[in-house]
## 1
Amino acid sequence: MASSPTIVKSGRTSCSGTIRSATTRRRRPPGAWVNKSLILLRGSLRGNARHVYEVVDDDTYNMKIQFSPDAEGWADVLTGVYRRIH
């Protein structure tokens, strides 16, 4: 029986997630829920990226991609509102 994949943090300075088998040591994913928002972080040599998905209701969520060279102040790169069409 195949094991289900697990998202883990890869690299010492990177926060990007990779998929490995369940036999790999489990680590905390690079993100967390804060109230109704899922915040995912990713670091690189150029700076840090933050993806924010905010649940508005069952049919709508807001999405933001932000950048920060020092992880202190965040600047919006892309924003959007996604709605389900019935």
## 2
Amino acid sequence: MNGSIFVDTNVFVYSRDASKLDKQTRAAEWVSHLWKNGTGRLSVQVLAEFYAVVTGKLKPRMETAGAREEVEDLKTLLRCRNKLHLPPFPWHNPG
């Protein structure tokens, strides 16, 4: 497979959804494959949606600390041509 592949929020959510083990396994394998090959892409919107879903709608919900850590890890996967200056996520305490 050539080129970049945008990964939607649902794929990341399924990779964490223990209530749907078949989807969880496939999503986790897909995400791992894309990032090992360097072809996966995501957006800041995906990060925000992922956090909202896994800490709100997902049953059981992820603990906020774990979800924050996951988002911070996923932020390293953002790629763009120009220097990207992200505003701090809501949990960052400027102090």
